[in-house]
From TrEMBL:
The active site is at 97 (acyl-ester intermediate), 100 (proton acceptor), 152. The keyword Repressor does not apply. Residues 1-23 form the signal peptide. Residues 376-425 form the Peptidase S11 D-Ala-D-Ala carboxypeptidase A C-terminal domain. Pathway: Cell wall biogenesis; peptidoglycan biosynthesis. This is serine-type D-Ala-D-Ala carboxypeptidase. Removes C-terminal D-alanyl residues from sugar-peptide cell wall precursors. One of its GO terms (molecular function) is serine-type D-Ala-D-Ala carboxypeptidase activity.
């Protein structure tokens, strides 16, 4: 009888907290989440016009205080891609040779500048504007990129596409995959040079070579600020004149940059023009001034003879950004409450995992972190902690369990991961029996010593 009572005491002392944990969780592995309170909750301001969300080519009427010539245009933050000013920015339109910024950045990322590229019959047959290559001619990839971006040669674009993607359709697939990865949901590439094109996919759906001003600006922001090859991209697009020959050195070529806006406004660092009969005049450009990065995209900006309208629109958009937005560091250090863990080991078994809660951290990468955003005078950033109410064992140290979101105008502009600092082992029958055995052994030894 006395031994039975000792066993009951051991069970009560050793397993009581764990029994409560099982009762709370119902023996299921469940993680319950809740959205944390915002650190700031003031409504954002700013002077942006209403932004339509049209993807069918029909753009509802909307305010345009800048009175732009373009059918679609956007001014965006060059780092986040956030739209600061838009006119028909989500309307799908053909984009002509502004396509070539994607062709260029993919070639830089996937190719080698010293690659030798051979002209095929298809490349040699491209319409003007073209370099005038002949089938079988060879060039270095680096030289073709200057031909592509300065003179906008269509045959250079096809040579690059066939070299990098194996074929024009193969390269178009790479272009579309990259666009999706960058968050461009309304972009569809068919050609590497931007010539007007249509195709029907395997499902019988017809696609047009097209994008939106918002998507095009997002691609440009990647090219000049985020790509691992951004410096090479900037070097090419900032060059005024470039001379090269084919590989044997038998034919020489000279390219002149047609992006006149590079010298028309202080701070402009890159750009690409475009024109087709279907697209009209188009333009995409980037600026950095006083530490403030901007990108613009302009589509359907008139037809001949209105070639200069795009320059007027570009100036208006960049000036709007300079006048209304300032760069601010909105990063704030975060404090986190410990999170309880159900179904976990409730005692120290020597592993260091005997606890019923875990501490949280944003990790070592958060040290010295900053988050700079272009903000209007009345705009406020909302900081939201998305963390679990409780976790179910087992939980490992360094496990991602939540995020800290920075939101502006209802959209997430940056998200930081939140990790556990310590782990909690899961309670098992074997651990319980070992725990009871240890407690019983300790009591038994104590009684023997006392006797």
């Amino acid at each position: 009888m006395r031994k039975w009572m000792i066993w009951m005491v051991c069970l009560g002392l050793g397993l009581g907290p764990c029994v409560r944990a099982f009762a709370m969780d119902g023996s299921k592995t469940v993680t319950v989440w809740e959205e944390g309170q915002a650190a700031t909750a003031q409504p954002p301001g700013g002077e942006q016009p209403a932004q339509a969300k049209s993807t069918n080519g029909e753009q509802p009427a909307q305010p345009d205080p800048l009175k732009l010539n373009a059918q679609s245009a956007v001014l965006a933050d060059g780092l986040t891609g956030r739209v600061l000013y838009g006119k028909g920015e989500d309307t799908i339109r053909p984009m002509a040779s502004t396509t070539k910024i994607m062709t260029c950045i993919l070639a830089l990322e996937l190719g080698d500048p010293d690659d030798v590229v051979t002209a095929t019959k298809e490349a040699a047959g491209q319409p003007k504007v073209h370099l005038g290559v002949q089938s079988g001619q060879t060039f270095y990839l680096k030289d073709l990129l200057y031909s592509l971006m300065l003179e906008s040669h269509n045959d250079a674009a096809v040579m690059i596409a066939e070299h990098i993607g194996g074929s024009v359709p193969g390269f178009a697939r790479l272009m579309n995959e990259k666009a999706k990865a960058l968050g461009c949901e309304n972009t569809y590439f068919i050609t590497p040079n931007g010539l007007d094109a249509k195709e029907t996919d395997e499902a019988g759906v017809e696609h047009v070579h097209s994008t939106t001003a918002a998507d095009l600006a997002r691609i440009m922001a990647y090219c000049v600020n985020l790509s691992p090859k951004r410096q090479e991209f900037l070097e090419i697009t900032q060059t005024q004149n470039y001379f090269f020959t084919d590989v044997p050195g038998k034919h020489s070529y000279n390219c002149t940059n047609h992006n006149a806006f590079l010298t028309m406004m202080d701070g402009v660092v890159s750009g690409k023009t475009g024109f087709t009969g279907g697209a009209g005049y188009s333009y995409v450009a980037a600026m950095e001034k006083d530490g403030r990065p901007y990108v613009i995209a302009i589509l359907g900006c008139g037809w001949p003879p209105h070639k200069t309208w795009k320059w007027a629109d570009a100036r208006k958009l960049f000036n709007f950004g300079l006048e209304h937005y300032q760069m601010k560091d909105v990063y704030e250090e975060q404090r986190f409450s410990p999170v309880p863990v159900t179904g976990g080991l409730c005692w120290d078994d020597g592993s260091g995992a005997g606890t019923d809660q875990v501490s949280l951290t944003m990790g070592q990468e958060s040290v010295g972190r900053e988050l700079k955003l272009l903000l209007g005078e009345d705009e406020q950033v909302e900081i939201r902690q998305n963390l679990p109410v409780r976790l179910a064992a087992p939980v490992r140290a360094g496990q991602k369990v939540g995020t800290v979101e920075y939101r502006l105008n209802g959209q997430t502009v940056r998200s930081f991961p939140v990790y556990t600092e310590n782990g909690v082992e899961q309670i098992t029958l074997k651990r319980c029996l070992l725990r009871v055995g240890a407690l019983f052994g300790g009591l038994w030894e104590g009684q023997r010593s006392a006797g």
